[in-house]
Write a structure and sequence with these properties.
The complex is a heterodimer. Chain A is mainly beta. Chain A is about 10% helix and about 20% strand. In chain A, the strands form three sheets. Chain A has a two-stranded antiparallel ribbon with strand order 1-2. A two-stranded antiparallel ribbon of chain A has the order 3-6. In chain A, β1 and β2 form a beta hairpin. Chain B has a seven-stranded mixed sheet, with helices on both faces. Chain B contains twelve helices and 15 strands. By secondary structure, chain B is α/β, with parallel strands linked by helices. In chain B, α1 crosses α2 and α3 runs parallel beside α4. Chain B is globular and about 70 Å long. In chain B, α6 links the parallel β6 and β7. The chains are: A mainly beta, B alpha/beta. At the A-B interface, loops of A face α8 of B.
Chain lengths: ~100, ~400
Amino acid sequence: MNTLFGEKKAKSEKIVFKSVDEYPEAPITLGTTLSNFTGDWRTFMPVIDESKCIKCYICWKFCPEPAIYIKEDGYTAVDYDYCKGCGICANECPTKAITMVREEK
Amino acid sequence: MPKKVVSGNYAAAYAAKHARVEVVAAYPITPQTSIIEKIAEFIANGEVENLQYVPVESEHSAMAACIGASATGARAFTATSAQGLALMHEMLHWAAGARLPIVMVDVNRAMAPPWSVWDDQTDSLSQRDTGWLQFYAENNQEVYDGVLMAFKIAEHEKVNLPVMVVESAFILSHTYDVVDMPEQEEIDEFLPPRKPLYTLTDFENPFSVGALGTPADYYEFRYKIAKAMEEAKKVIKEVGKEYGERFGRDYSQMIELYKTDDAEIVFMGMGSLMGTVKEAVDMLRSEGYKVGAAKVRWFRPFPKEELYELAKNVEGIAVLDRNFSFGQEGILFNESKGVLYNTDAKPIMKNYIVGLGGRDLTVNDVKTIAKNMREIIQKGKLDREIEWYHLKR
């Protein structure tokens, strides 16, 4: 994903250990959030309506993950691999451009 | 071999210096203070190179600093006591969980209230489930030897776990005794520089330490520590044997047996009180009692196999606990009785709670205990399982 602040970091494969012998001695490099997709935790997903977006970037500033990125065209987008669905973006958006939608899995 | 007349605390400080520790982070607490004072003095006098002292505002931070230092590959050391150790408790789990071979000297001191600065093992035994190895020293020499061996054992590739070397408050920490200290070159041969499992200073390959372990992974890491603890038993014996070959004092046994070969009654305990017990054993032997002493050197990992071997050939074991687990019994008694449950060895075992908060255990006390044990064995029946020996009745 290209953003105003350069290329978003490539995602790595989730590390899966099949047997106890495959584990490292110490609990290191279990993978950072590059491989642990915390988006699995979400119940409601934010959906951005670009027609209402005024590019104020309040959602981008408030996202605690951060799972909101600024695209090259200036609009924001949600990275659903990491969005936990907290809804702060939707709550803070001054034009109500973001709605939280119950996710069907 | 140079000899020095030093306190237990100075013995610990010299051992840390001779082990060429690179980072010391500690907070002063009675009766541990003179350990870090001495180390500060080494630095001030320019006697040590490459040693960073980190002054911290609490024991919790002291352990945190040691964890950070150790994770970069440095050899880290700290010392504490009682309430200070309790304040470290949360961090002790991080050190063991991240597999960092930190060595700490704990000066056994009773937990408050009532406020006490005297000897009692409950502080260190309260940390038994943190994943730290625990070595209990009987005298100043063992404090010194214990720290040197602790680094070698902790840093062994099959162990990579932190080690606590435990000495008695005041009985050892502030009393002076002759301690043999090998030449620095000999120690360097015994204890080469550390080869860390990982180092945070590997900037080419960044990684995270102590990251989230979901239910899919946490369990296996616990097993790895459990396995390392089992492996540590072999490593302890190897290192103890090597220490004996190099420096003349053998530590290959996790339980030191004293005159137990034909003993009917064995006194079992940990730390400095076992010096008194050995003295009493000699006297009791001259009075015709068949007694012996079993000093548990390593409480973690617990020397199950050795205890089983010992229990096979004795009629009674008097477990002397300078600690107490409220609502149950003495901690060493609890553990050793548990070990023997699934075995054929079933000696009569009785728990004597002694010396809490620095109360003296004398040779005469041990004689009284021996008489009591003999009566029990003759009757073949316990009078009571737990006896608060010193209680004013």
